[in-house]
Structures are given as C-alpha cells and as structure tokens.
From TrEMBL, chain A:
This is Uncharacterized protein. The chain crosses the membrane at residues 20-39, 72-96, 116-137, 149-174, 180-201, 253-273. It comes from Pyxidicoccus fallax. Keywords: Membrane, Transmembrane, Transmembrane helix.
TrEMBL record, chain B:
Keywords: ATP-binding, Nucleotide-binding, Transport. This is ABC transporter ATP-binding protein. It comes from the Bacteria. Belongs to the ABC transporter superfamily.
Amino acid sequence: MNPVLGIAGYVLREAVARKFILAFVVGITLVLSVVALSLRIEVVDGALAASRLFGEELRASIRSVDVALRPVYTAAAFIVFYGGILFGIVACSDFAPSLLSPGRIEHLLALPIQRWHLLAGTFLGVMVLALGGTLYGTTGLVLIFGVKAGYWTAGPLIAGLMACVGFAAVYAVMLTTATLVRSAALCAASGFLFLIGGVIAGFRQQISPAFEEGLSRSTFEAVTLMLPRLSSLAVAAGNIASSTPLEVNSLGMLLLGVLVFGFGALAVGFWRFEGKDY
Amino acid sequence: MRKTYRRAFRKVGNEALRGMDLTVPEGSAFGLIGPNGAGKTTFIKSILGIVQPTEGTVRVLGGSPEDPRIRARIGYLPERLHLPGSWTPTAFLATVTRLKGLKPDAAADLRLLERVGLADAVGRKIGGYSKGMRQRLGLAAAMVGSPSLLILDEPTDGIDPMGRLEVRRILLEEVRKGTTLFLNSHLLAETERVCDRVAILADGRVVREGRLEDLARGEARWMVRFAPGVDAGALTAAGFKRGSADGVFHVEAQDPMALNAALDKARAGGALLVELRRDGADLESVLLGTVAPAGAVGVAA
C-alpha cells in the first residue's frame, strides 16, 4: 500500500473516532432532514407559486424557481465556505500535532516510510474528510431542492469544492505550523489568522484607502498581495452556487493563486519536517 | 558520532553525544545503560534516523537508517509509546503492517497478540488498556514482520513481574532465532538476564563496552567458602583473605594452576571446600564503578 494512503487512512480512522466530527455529520443530517421535512414548495410552470416553512407561508412574489432559489444557494455557499473552514480549523487542528506528539512520531518515523509521506498523508486524510463532509452537505441540499422544486443545479457542489480549495490553503498553513510547534491551539490560531488575512486580502482594494498614503499603505498592500483572496473565492462560490455572473475577473487565476499559496506553505512544512529532530 | 541540539537564540547548543563510537555485533543481545542524560535516547533515535547526527555516520544492517528498506528490517518500541486509544489492537497492528509495506495478515497479528499475552484483550479498545498492556502491544508492533533488529526502549516499563518474565522469554526467543536485540532498560537485572553485551554511556560517550561476563568479572579474584571450623590463620598464611560471612574467604589467582595450588594449601591445612566462584560484580556495581568517578552516579538508564 502507498504509504501516503496508509497515513491518510490512519488520520481518517482517528477522525472517525472523534465525537465532535460524528456530531458534525449528525448535525448536517439533522439540518437537511429538518429542511426536507418542514419545507414545502409549490411550483407551477417553472415558477415558485408558494412555499411553506414549518406550515407558515413565506410571502414572496411569483418568480421562476432558479431566481427564487438564488438567495438560498448563495447563503448556503457562504455557510459552507466560512462555516466549513471554521469548523475544519477547529476540528482538524490537533490531527497533525497528535501525529507529531512524543511517543507517536518516533514510532511513525521508525517505520519504513519517508518523512514527506507522513505530512502528505495527513494533508490528504484531512482533505478527504473535508471533501466528504462538504459533498455530503451540498449534495443533500441539491437533492432536497431538486426534488421539491424540480430545479437541478451542480452550482452548490462546485461551490463546495471551491470551499475545499480554500480550506486546503488554510490547512496547509496549519500543517506547516505543526512542524514548527506541536500545539493544536497554535495550529488553530494560525488557521484563524490566515483565514482573516485571506478575507482582508479579498477586499484589499476597498480597505487600502483607509491607510495613510505612504509606508503603511504600501506595507498593507504588500502583505495582502502575498495572501490568497479567500473572500473573493467565497464570493465566486456564492455566484456559482446561485448561477449568477461571476464578480471576480478570473476565477482560474484566483484558484491558481490559492493553490500556489497552499502548495508553497506545504513545501515550507515539508522542508522544515525533513530536517527536524524528534 | 556527535549530536548537538541547537537552540534558537543561543550560541551554544546542548551536546547530547560527544564522540560516540559503538559497534553492535549482529545476532547479539546488546544492552545500553547509563545515568540520566547520558545520551541513550538520542543514540537510539540516531540509529533509527529520527535524529540526525551533527557529525559522524550511522550504519545499521549494512545501510543507512534513512533508507526505508533498512528501517523495514527494524522493529522499534519507543520509551513512551503513544497509541491511538480509540483503536482496537488488531486495527493498530494491521495499520503498522501496512505501513511496513507488508500484506495485512489478521491471523499473524492475532498470533503476535497471543504471544505478548494480549489474547484476552483483542476485542477491547486500546484506550482501556493498562500501561503494561500498552507496552505489550508496543512490543507486538515492534515484532511485526519478524525484523532483523529489535530496538527496545524500556520494554518492560509498567509490566508486572510475571509479565516481565514473559517478555524476557520472548526476547530470548527472538535472540535465539538470530534477531539482533538492542535494549535500553533502567532495570539492570533485566539487562543482565537478557543481554550478552553491554555498553555504558556517560556524558555522551561510551565509557565501557564489552561482553557482560568480562565487564562483571572481578579480575583474578575468587570467592571460596569452607565448611565451619576452618583454621583462619592457616588460610591467611596460604594467601586467603577473610570475607564478610563466616567461612567465606577471597583469594587472588591469575590462572587455574595458581588457584588450585592455593586450594591445595588450604585443604592441606584441614579446610573443606564447600563453594567456589569467580568474584564477579553485578551490573549495578559495574555501572556505579564506571560512572561514579565522574560524579555522575544516578538512576541507571
């Protein structure tokens, strides 16, 4: 078996045993079940005629279903993006520090695997977990609205995948932090800081004038230039989920920037891990 | 080999190994002992490539410890093995088997668990295991794939006396099968019973190394016990020195001829020989005798 897959399996097995990850899956299932059971949508000739939530009528003008569902899918995309990344930061913060903990890392490093296998496997395991959770939630949402409203779209699924790309960059930073300090709290803190930095980077053009012209503004622009624009990615995910025109200029460049940053952060972590004594 | 741990913002690092030079013969049961902070754990980690030496090289089983093919032939039990509590022992061993690049073999894993005395706890989660049971599982994990070299750091830590006997039996079986055993244990009696060669580490250096019987041998000194009623004066005249117990004497003899000549003199004086043995020291005495002059007498290993 490929050692990377072996370590990924190790991480996933650990994750399955975590109660709060199981609780998260149960939580998603409950939310989807509640939406499925309490929401009634009546569609006439492709237009949303009436909708009821918990038996209460939701007042809205008659619109085509795809237009009516845009705010729902946009909100879902933002919840999946930011909520998912925030949950991922908390839930996955101790995977790497736990694998690198004294008594476990020595045992793993003594096995016939390369050091980079260990980090790559951990990264892969966490990403499989994130992808699984995201696809479970978004597929459920698409199925519910598809069945109830007869409107089928892959937008929320693609938005979910974009959230996973964003989380990949965040987790790359967290994993690299774990190679420097074996602390779940500091890993989570670095993830939060990076997420906030990524949100700010997305609004750098709007925020930049708030800084005094000169050194402070240049510093702000230089720092935010290095960070991937996570908030722009979230906006793009919302656009795709709701099938509205993209507000970002180039989604490809945006995704590439996030991925390059993530791989760069991982490369630093791999380099640090290769030369570290445990 | 030298190893200096560099600290951030400090010019001087911590020297854990200061010119360590050690060869472990293949197929031997080798014990590593020494006071706290002697560098034993750093040395073990160097053998496994977990710690990279600042100077010098490590050769294990004819190759570098950095080579996964070499590490595939090594079984390692760390001092404080941290096991995943939510797993069952079979799942853990299956994962270790896969990570060692071997095909999972549930029957072989069960046999290993049985061998280390965990047959009754196979269905339980590791989190519910006692410290001794975890050590046994760690030992089983080290033996996955029948490695050529077993490196065990405190293998009997937390194991009850009966369990220690079992572990000792397993280790001796492995040595008889041709496995090289490298043991670090603070239980000197354990090392004494299992190992045939010992190295004493102090201050990052090997201060003594050799066959256990050679290290423990008291030069040319013999302990002799005679039946009660012996004439102490005659024995003293024959070169014997009175010992601490009644009837016990010590004699210096460089070879069997000299020893027998001394005994003949004693018997000629009416002394009846009851017991004769080499005046050897136990491992603890050897350790204390070796490291005490440096003022480093502490808890061994």
